[in-house]
Design brief:
The complex is a heterodimer. Chain A contains twelve helices and two strands, in the order H-E-E-H-H-H-H-H-H-H-H-H-H-H. Chain A has a single domain, classed as Orthogonal Bundle (MetI-like fold). The longest helix of chain A has about 35 residues, at about 1-35. A two-stranded antiparallel sheet of chain A has the order 1-2. By secondary structure, chain A is an all-alpha fold. By secondary structure, chain B is of the alpha+beta class. Chain B folds into two domains: about 5-225, Rossmann fold, CATH 3.40.50.300; about 230-355, RNA polymerase II/Efflux pump adaptor protein, barrel-sandwich hybrid domain (OB fold (Dihydrolipoamide Acetyltransferase, E2P)). Chain B is about 25% helix and about 35% strand. Chain B is built from eight helices and 20 strands. Chain B is elongated and about 80 Å long. The chains are: A mainly alpha, B alpha+beta.
Chain lengths: ~290, ~350
Amino acid sequence: MKQAKASKKYWATLLPLYLFTILFVGAPLLYMVVLSFLQRAESWGVTSQFTLQNYIQILQPVYLSTFADSLKLALISTTIIVFIGYPFGYFMAKLSPKGKQRMMLALMVPFWTNSLIRLYGWIIIFRANGTLDQLLMGLHITDSPLKLLYTYPAVVVGMVYALLQFMIFAVYSSAEKMDWSLVEAARDLGASPAKAFFTVTLKLTLPGLLSGIILTFIPSMGLFFIADILGGNKVVLVGSLIQDQLVKAHNTPFAAALAVVLMIMTTLMIALYRKISGVRDLEGLL
Amino acid sequence: MGKKILQLEQISKSFGDTKVLDQISLEIEQGEFITLLGASGCGKTTTLRIIAGLEHPDNGRVLLNGRDVTLFPPEKRTVNTVFQNYALFPHMTVGENIAYGLKLKKFSKEQIQKKVAEMLELVQLEGYQNRMPGELSGGQRQRVAIARAVAVEPQVLLLDEPLGALDLQLRRQMQFELKRLQKQLGITFIYITHDQEEALNMSDRIAVMRKGQFEQIGTPNEIYETPKTSYVAHFVGEANILRGTVAEAGENILLHTPAGSFSAHCYEVAAEQGKTACVAVRSEQVSFQPAEQSLTGLSAVIREKTFAGGMLRIVLELTDGQTLVASRHGIDLPAQVGQQMTVFWEPSQAIVVEDSEEELP
């Protein structure tokens, strides 16, 4: 009896959560999936006729290559983020409590500004005869403007800038929890500093590193406005393709199909992550 | 025996403005079980970390087997540590933990397997090879930590309060086992503890530390029977510390206090006529009788009577304000709190010590 009452209360408290999720996450997702199987109407909207045409259209080389480009950019950005973000998070965990607080603040403050405005900052830095060119020419490292704006490297820098802090925080939180006496124990048993790092520190901060990769890789598949703003029209990603199909071409079913494929790809990434990190009880360390 | 395995020469270490070690020197012989005993913050863990190479001294030298290893990193020293929190690698099995150091020394797979099995047998954990450290009890983790450190055959094994986290019964059992292990392996043990009972039970020699210095180094007997300072007497023997003016100097001395006069004996420390001397008397040596039955001794009042651990503890306050603790076997004694008493002891049991000038509880 008592238990039944308790479980009723339990459901009562959870109900708003479920309602919210169904209404604002489940239903729109379902709507999108349904849309992706419908046919485009002559001028606007959709007709309720089932078709696989939208998915077949994705198989055209021009769209497949867009997916490949997105994947490539995400991979490049994530790799760079790993090599900057991991050491950053690692050393941040070794700072004094006060140092940690200051660093945390320094990382957070830029995000109180709108991300678009911050991207325009990069335009000022990258444009011909912009801040970067002036600096490099002033130091006589280069003697003509590099014209970095609207190039691939500019897009990569923008992606790294936008997503780096996710990696830093993920690595930091697992490095912070690490027992540093384990590294001392490794050294004591005969490990060089590098050996101790690879056999102990890296293994124990792996959960943080992996979740950092997920947190940067998945958004980088969809962050199209960075490529649009810093890459001009030279770098077309799945995200911008979806936007174009929806806003400019008014092809809602095709846009939905593209979104579904993108979602499946990211879901597979998460499944892969779970499989890797699930090996040998690493979650217990978090 | 007799060969010096480890020498510390004039070692000093400061962290910021805090002087942790102040010119300490120590020589340790091959096969010895030596304990660094002291309260927390006395510098004993820092001493151990300097020997292990996890910390480098500001001044002084560390000699291992006659070779100067002061600036060697930990991996280059044939010294291993059993850490206070065990520091077992949580992502490796018990077997992998023990094999860690062996793998680094490039032993073959068969050699490693054989050694791991041997170590598990040594610490009586056969069959635990594939368990994860998280699945073990505190005592078992402790054994794995020892096995892991001993597997690489160190010349000196450092143990940093290894029994601190265990319950009393397990602690007693492990004391016995550690001693057995040390005899069996013939390795020099440097053991850290703040528990005087542990130190007295296990050690060949004890070095009592206080404020970054060695207060006294000697066998458990020497430390217990003839403490050199009031700190050692109080910390190791839980002795009462009394101060009085020396009226008659010599081997046996007479001291005056406002509460009366008493005799004491000089073993290691001499007393000077007319000066204040410090005397240690262990609680079990303190006798007392109702004031009306006895006249020779110090007059005191019973302030407290408590029963703990099979012993009765009586707190007596001398008329000059100094307090004494007496202990008795048994549950009760006829004397009441507030009763006037005369306190006395065998003069040979009152040991003249150097005054550490420390507030004692």
